[in-house]
């Protein structure tokens, strides 16, 4: 048995968590303020969920911003900040998936009293001023990103082909309301992509350089819960109990990565999303087994030590379980439709090695290693489809 000492660590998460079917009603008790900005998507409004929320907040001045992009763009966030510059909000509610909650978190900073230039901070490393963000209530309607409990937000810049990570403890929402009933109407495609993100995040947290015992305790519960729940849920989308389990898994993965961050599969996912439009969870899942195998080849004892608490006797059995889920859920065929060719995907290797994510993998990966991981990912996908 590998003896891994517990190094000094810190763990902080300031978000109050309210979980359970029907807990959307709690919004009445956690929003004492008058002027509310609700950030959401047009789809959420069309499904009636925005109305469901506003009906719980009578006698408030509510503004609804429901044009969130699935990949929030710097330019859109700047426009929204200009649009609402003259309005005073006491609270921002993010109602939706990870992109929506990220947008709410960023707007809570941009609409605070202090002037703050997002673009300069993200592209020129300009120091963040002393900010007092507007309080944020995060209400996820999908199960996967964990954005309701993390201090980061992903921001995209299509014109320059870049993805940025905005990270500061100021982004931790004040309250997360996780009501599994809200995810009952989520489509199979979104259930799949977000569910894949949940178990990739849980696994990556385990092999992060910033791994710590608190995050590990969350990840050790999150990963098996996602692996056992997702295949059943995809065949039974209206099952409230399975929706609850998936949301619980997603929350635990979020609580894990909030301190460890993600690693290599996330690093490689961003150019796949930018170049081929691969949805985030699918893009992470594309390389998750080859990254597992790469890590095992570098440090087999450590991998064995990692996989046992999540219920697997070897990294091979874990890899086979994941590959089976990717095959039966049509993940491989979805990926095959989106990604052009083996050559095109291997050509992304240099863009895929983003320092903050790739350097966070417990074993170093070179450009050749990433090329090998991409090649292996392609081969595993095509082998499954043949
Ligand atoms: Zn993710």
Offer a quick outline of the entry.
The protein has 386 residues and is α/β, with parallel strands linked by helices. The protein is built from 18 helices and eight strands.
Annotated CATH topology of the largest domain:
Dehydroquinate synthase-like, alpha domain
Indicate the radius of gyration in whole angstroms. Answer: 20 Å
How many domains? The number is 2
State the distance separating the first and last CA atoms: 39 Å
State the oligomer: single chain
Strand content: 5-15%
Architecture overview:
- The protein has 18 helices and 8 strands.
- The model has no long low-confidence stretch (mean pLDDT 94).
- A hairpin with a 4-residue loop joins strand 6 (152-157) and strand 7.
- The strands form 2 sheets. It has a 6-stranded parallel beta sheet, with helices on one face. A two-stranded antiparallel sheet has the order 6-7.
- It has 386 residues and is of the alpha/beta class.
- Helix 7 (188-206) packs antiparallel against helix 8, helix 11 (280-298) runs antiparallel to helix 13 and helix 11 (280-298) crosses helix 14.
- The site of zinc ion has 6 residues, from helix 7 and helix 11.
Spell out the blueprint of helices and strands.
Elements: E1 16-19, H1 27-30, E2 35-39, H2 42-46, H3 49-54, E3 61-65, H4 74-83, E4 91-96, H5 98-110, H6 118-124, E5 136-140, E6 152-157, E7 162-167, E8 175-178, H7 188-206, H8 213-234, H9 240-260, H10 264-276, H11 280-298, H12 300-307, H13 315-328, H14 331-338, H15 342-346, H16 349-352, H17 355-358, H18 367-385
Parallel strand pairs: 1-8, 2-3, 2-4, 4-5, 5-8
Antiparallel strand pairs: 6-7
Bound molecules: zinc ion.
